[in-house]
Amino acid sequence: MSAISAFLFRRTLQFQPIRQLHLTKCLYQERYFTKKHEWVQIIDTNKKQNEIRIGISDYAQRALGDVVYCELPAIGTKFKCDDTFATLESVKAVSDCYMPIDGEVSTVNDKLKDEADLINKSSYENGWLIQAIIDDKNKKNIPSTLMNEKQYEKFLEANKEASDH
C-alpha cells in the first residue's frame, strides 16, 4: 500500500463513525423483562392463540452460576402472575422462577432435562424454560406492565448495588 493510500485509508477510518447493528431486534420479537429477571417474548407459532416464551435473563443466569438441574411444570398447568412455575438448581443455590403473566403452560423446553447448562450457554435462544398461552388482555398489557430491553438495562444499572435483586 502506497503512502498516499495508507494516509487516505486512515483518514477515512478516522472520520467515519462505527455503527453497530443489532440483528436480534430485526430477526426476533422484542423481549420484555420483570424485576425478578424473567423475560417474556411473544411468539407467533400458533396464530389462533396468543403464545409467549419465558426464560431467565442473562443477568440472572450469571448470578445463579452453573445450572445443573431444572424442574419445569407439566403442560396444561395454569399459573397466575408471580406464581412459582419452575425451580433452577445451580452449584451456588436453588432459585425459583416466577410467572411474569397469567397463562397456561403449552410447551416446556425438554432439552433442559438433559442439558440444564443451556440456560447458561444461551439463556435467550436455546435456554428458554416454557411457553404459555395467554389471553388478549394480557398480551396487550405486556408493554405497559413489563420492561423492554432498554428499561431493563437501566433497572440493572440503577440497582447494581442492591443485594436483593
UniProtKB/TrEMBL annotation:
Its cofactor is (R)-lipoate. It comes from the Eukaryota. The keyword RNA-binding does not apply. The modification N6-lipoyllysine is found at K92. Keywords: Lipoyl, Mitochondrion, Transit peptide. The keyword Transit peptide applies. Binds 1 lipoyl cofactor covalently. Residues 51-133 form the Lipoyl-binding domain. Its main location: mitochondrion. It is found in: Mitochondrion. Pfam families: GCV_H. GO terms for cellular component: glycine cleavage complex; mitochondrion. GO terms for biological process: glycine decarboxylation via glycine cleavage system; protein lipoylation. NCBIfam families: gcvH (TIGR00527), PRK01202.1 (NF002270). Belongs to the GcvH family. The glycine cleavage system is composed of four proteins: P, T, L and H. The H protein shuttles the methylamine group of glycine from the P protein to the T protein. This is Glycine cleavage system H protein.
